[in-house]
Amino acid sequence: MIFACSSAIDVGEISARAARQLTKEGIGKMFCTAGIGGRVSGIMKTTESAERILAIDGCPLNCVKNSLEQAGFNKFHHLQLSDLGLEKCNSPVTEENISKVAAKGKEMIS
Fold first, then answer.
1. How many Å apart are CA 23 and CA 38, to the nearest integer?
2. What is each CA distance from 58 to 7, 49, 51, 64, in whole angstroms?
3. Is the pTM of this model over 0.90?
4. Triad 14, 52, 74: Cα angle to 5°
5. 98, 14 in Cβ contact below 8 A?
């Protein structure tokens, strides 16, 4: 399962588009991060049974990571875009940046 930041800023869009790319490639399946925060029963149950979870955070606020942890999930891979040199408000939404994030995510959960 893949949970991604979807903020209104550049790194959120990159995170979400990378998660969609990984889903298209069959690497995992993107799920609704807000469903974790809202404790939606179906999403919680599906997440509990997931073999692997990837959290993709756009910025150091780590909203995805924090949402998962607060919901009781502690075994997941965490990808923080700043670790790849992508910074909030300074990272153009390009195919290159999206592919860079998707490649790192693939490496982490494969």
1. 23
2. 8, 25, 23, 9
3. yes
4. 90
5. yes
